[in-house]
């Protein structure tokens, strides 16, 4: 099973680049940029990575991201993630980033997106990993701030394919961002949104109806709503599920309680992703492995998850078919 997990061509569709900042690089950048950390060692920092909910994680994630300052820092962050993808058989990535974390502390938007985009272009050239970038808005901030961020991003329009919505879910429903998402769609951008991670099913309905998303990030709460489940199945609406994130943030008490395989068997287009791999205990292969260990996952289910990851991507039909053909003959 492990060898097959690594060997299958896979796409990763839900990963926050700032969440791939490993403690080693975090310390290195803090030293280079002369930023004083609240932790005296890598070991001490790792010990702080224990969370009871999403907000506790976000508080540490935003602090960690402060060590990212220059265009090269964003390049190095993205490049390290792509090297890991190469190790694990990931052939296509659609990572997101949170520009407001950086611009709100005075970092130039261009430095952020140019560093990331340059690494993604190099990944395509030298690692054969294709990619589309997603610009995410922080939902705990105002819609006005999201609109300003979108305006700031327009000179870099060719560097991103979609907009997303992340950060503290409870109390910040998708409807709060209706106008900025409409504007993004008018510009030809695709849309995705975190919904139904900690928040209620109502937020998933809103993401579909008001934000007109092409995918739901997380969405695991949908399982409790039969009408919503039927809609997800009928529309083949992808969910980008993140098993290790869900157990680390206590969305599920244990991996054996995770509903991803039940959703898969019902015909929902679920995919496996790492969310914030440096904080939640591993990259995409670790997420597949965690499922294979805790649940009776069959090879057929594993292959369907890999196929779903390609089908749910923003790749064109021909590229999708090429990857899927390889999945079918692998193993
Ligand atoms: N949920 C919401 N916002 C986030 C997450 C997440 O899992 N990771 C980084 N930002
Ligand atoms: Zn996420």
What does this molecule look like?
With 331 residues, this protein is of the alpha/beta class. Helix content is 51%, strand content 11%. It contains 17 helices and 10 strands. The strands form 2 sheets. It has a 7-stranded parallel beta sheet. Strand 8, helix 11 and strand 9 form a beta-alpha-beta unit. Helix 5 runs parallel beside helix 7 and helix 16 runs antiparallel to helix 17. It is globular and about 50 Å long. The mean pLDDT is 98. Bound molecules: hypoxanthine and zinc ion (ZN). Hypoxanthine binds next to helix 4.
Q: What characteristics describe this protein?
A:
331 residues; alpha/beta; 7-stranded parallel beta sheet; 3-stranded parallel beta sheet; 17 helices; 10 strands; binds hypoxanthine; binds zinc ion
């Amino acid at each position: 099973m492990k060898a097959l997990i690594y060997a299958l061509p896979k796409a990763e569709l839900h990963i926050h680049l700032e969440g791939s900042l490993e403690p080693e690089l975090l310390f290195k950048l803090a030293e280079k940029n002369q930023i004083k950390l609240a932790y005296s060692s890598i070991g001490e920092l790792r010990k702080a990575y224990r969370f009871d909910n999403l907000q506790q994680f976000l508080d540490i994630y935003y602090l960690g991201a402060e060590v990212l300052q220059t265009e090269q820092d964003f390049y190095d962050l993205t490049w390290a993630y792509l090297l890991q993808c190469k190790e694990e058989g990931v052939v296509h990535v659609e990572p997101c980033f949170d520009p407001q974390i950086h611009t709100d502390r005075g970092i130039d938007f261009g430095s952020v997106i140019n560093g990331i985009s340059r690494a993604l272009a190099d990944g395509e050239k030298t690692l054969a990993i294709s990619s589309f970038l997603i610009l995410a808005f922080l939902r705990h901030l105002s819609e006005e701030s999201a609109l300003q961020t979108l305006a700031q991003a327009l000179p870099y329009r060719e560097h991103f394919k979609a907009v997303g919505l992340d950060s503290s879910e409870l109390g910040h429903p998708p409807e709060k961002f209706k106008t900025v998402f409409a504007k993004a769609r008018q510009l030809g951008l695709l849309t995705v949104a975190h919904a139904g991670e900690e928040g209620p099913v109502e937020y998933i309905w809103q993401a579909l109806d008001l934000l007109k998303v092409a995918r739901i990030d997380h969405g695991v709460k949908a399982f409790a709503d039969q009408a919503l489940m039927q809609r997800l199945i009928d529309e083949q609406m992808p969910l980008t599920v993140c098993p290790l994130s869900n157990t680390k943030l206590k969305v599920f008490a244990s991996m054996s309680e995770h509903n991803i395989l039940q959703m898969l068997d019902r015909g929902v287009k679920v995919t496996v992703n790492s969310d914030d791999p440096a904080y939640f205990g591993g990259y995409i292969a670790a997420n597949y492995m965690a499922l294979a260990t805790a649940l009776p996952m069959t090879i057929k289910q594993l292959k369907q998850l890999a196929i779903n990851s390609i089908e749910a991507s923003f790749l064109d039909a021909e590229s999708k078919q090429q990857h899927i053909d390889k999945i079918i003959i692998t193993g």
